[in-house]
Write a structure and sequence with these properties.
Helix 3 (73-81) runs parallel beside helix 4 and helix 8 (201-211) crosses helix 10. Strands 5-6-11-10-7-8-9 form a seven-stranded mixed beta sheet, with helices on both faces. The protein folds into two domains: 2-120, HUPs (Rossmann fold), CATH 3.40.50.620; 132-250, HUPs (Rossmann fold), CATH 3.40.50.620. It contains ten helices and eleven strands. It has helices at residues 2-7, 32-60, 73-81, 105-112, 141-149, 151-154, 172-184, 201-211, 226-232, 235-242, and strands spanning 11-17, 24-25, 28-29, 64-70, 87-90, 117-120, 132-136, 159-165, 189-194, 216-220, 247-250.
Length: 251
């Protein structure tokens, strides 16, 4: 809510309820009355959550609308993202039972969403972030897209650092152009380039977040195919799982 206040934004809060259909399963027949009871419990939980949310935004004097919709979360969120500037979601906790149905939601969302996705870590408090923004920069379409959509954050930051991890070629000219682009938007950024041996790009980025005392990451999502990164590993998947600060993803 602090983010909405800072940017004068309207919040559309979306609560999704997974589809519930009476059917057979590996456990046998599921009685329709059980399905209906579960649906009612979900609706009560949704109503309670939305009520608490409305109370919070009213106290903060923030414009908002609320939606409760039954269906697959990825489809619903992607649809509402079409008329939004930013999607904000929480990182999923693999040890939390209630998060288990949604463990791969964010992996899918950062690719499916037509707008950037801001993921907030489940552990910690992040009411004030974005003073020092660390940007993963490697002269790719995804990295450029991430910088472009992050301009509202970058212009408000006290410090912006572009980090080029393990460059495979000389990016002198490309680095100069992206710094000029940022300068034209009123963003004075530093650029750091380095090679990290024996650790992944995701780990290097997360380590640099701590080393440089940054409090937010901006990065392109799934420069390689999502399937390839899910199988072989990749920076997006690693950061989604191990993030320690809010991360703005763009694909």
């Amino acid at each position: 809510m602090g983010l909405a206040n800072e940017h004068g934004a309207h919040i559309t809060a979306v609560y999704t309820i997974a589809p519930m259909k009476p059917s057979t399963s590996f456990m046998g027949y599921i009685p329709p009355e059980f399905v209906e009871q579960t649906r009612e419990q979900e609706k009560k939980s949704a109503d309670t959550t939305i009520k608490l949310f409305k109370e919070l935004v009213e106290r903060a004097d923030i414009s908002c609308s609320t939606i409760i919709e039954e269906g697959y979360a990825i489809d619903i969120l992607s649809q509402y993202a079409l008329s939004s500037d930013l999607v904000v979601v929480s990182q999923m906790d693999a040890d939390e039972v209630s998060d288990s149905p949604y463990l791969y939601l964010n992996d899918e969302l950062v690719v499916a969403s037509p707008t950037p996705v801001l993921v907030i870590p489940y552990a910690g408090s992040f009411r004030d972030f974005g003073r020092h923004v660390l940007v993963g920069w490697n002269n790719t379409r995804e990295a450029a897209r991430a910088i472009q959509v992050a301009i509202p954050f970058l212009t408000k930051a006290e410090k912006v650092t572009l980090l080029n991890i393990n460059p495979q070629s000389d990016l002198t000219n490309e680095n100069a152009r992206i710094l000029q682009f940022l300068d034209r938007h009123g963003v004075k950024a530093d650029l750091k380039s380095g090679h990290w041996k024996d650790i992944s790009v995701g780990s290097a980025l997360l380590d640099s977040l701590v080393d440089l005392s940054a409090d937010m990451i901006v990065m392109g999502a799934y420069g390689h195919s999502r399937i390839r990164e899910m199988i072989l590993g990749g920076a997006t998947k690693e950061v989604l799982e191990q993030m320690t600060a809010p991360v703005l993803f763009a694909h």
